[in-house]
């Protein structure tokens, strides 16, 4: 999601962290282990590619990350599925009255 929101579809890991903090406030006070998880997933998941940065850019140390075009469709599809599940009224998020009878 962060990489897709970037104008050039590539970001350094520090900007991915920033995007996550901006969109998911929970992580502002969470233990910092989540950053290790982000780096781990970027490194091991075939969907992400490490991209050489343009030498004219001064983004600091580290690499840029992009989504491998071969897997982009899969990631977008997964994001849409999660988005549908999170909608109010979806069976997994709504209250089901029948569950009250077994208390």
From TrEMBL:
Organism annotation: Lates japonicus (Japanese lates)
Superkingdom: Eukaryota
InterPro entries hit by this protein: Fork_head_dom, FOXN2/3-like, TF_fork_head_CS_2, WH-like_DNA-bd_sf, WH_DNA-bd_sf
Molecular function per GO: cis-regulatory region sequence-specific DNA binding; DNA-binding transcription factor activity
Gene3D superfamilies xref list: Winged helix-like DNA-binding domain superfamily/Winged helix DNA-binding domain
Record key words, sorted: DNA-binding, Nucleus, Transcription, Transcription regulation
Keyword Transcription recorded: yes
Name of the protein described by the UniProt record: Forkhead box protein N3-like protein
Cellular component annotations (GO), alphabetically ordered: nucleus
Fork-head domain span: 1-77
Record localization: Nucleus
SMART domains found in the cross-reference section: FH
The keyword DNA-binding appears for this protein: yes
A Pfam family matched in the record: Forkhead
DNA-binding region extent: 1-77
PROSITE patterns reported for this sequence: FORK_HEAD_2 (PS00658), FORK_HEAD_3 (PS50039)
């Amino acid at each position: 999601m962060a990489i897709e929101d970037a104008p050039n579809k590539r970001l350094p890991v520090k900007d991915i962290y920033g995007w996550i903090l901006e969109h998911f406030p929970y992580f502002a006070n969470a233990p910092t282990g989540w950053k290790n998880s982000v780096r781990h997933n970027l490194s091991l998941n075939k969907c992400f590619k490490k991209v050489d940065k343009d030498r004219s850019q001064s983004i600091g140390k580290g690499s840029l990350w992009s989504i491998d075009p071969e897997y982009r469709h899969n990631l977008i599809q997964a994001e849409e599925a999660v988005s549908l599940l999170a909608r109010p009224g979806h069976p997994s998020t709504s209250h089901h009255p029948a569950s009250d009878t077994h208390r």
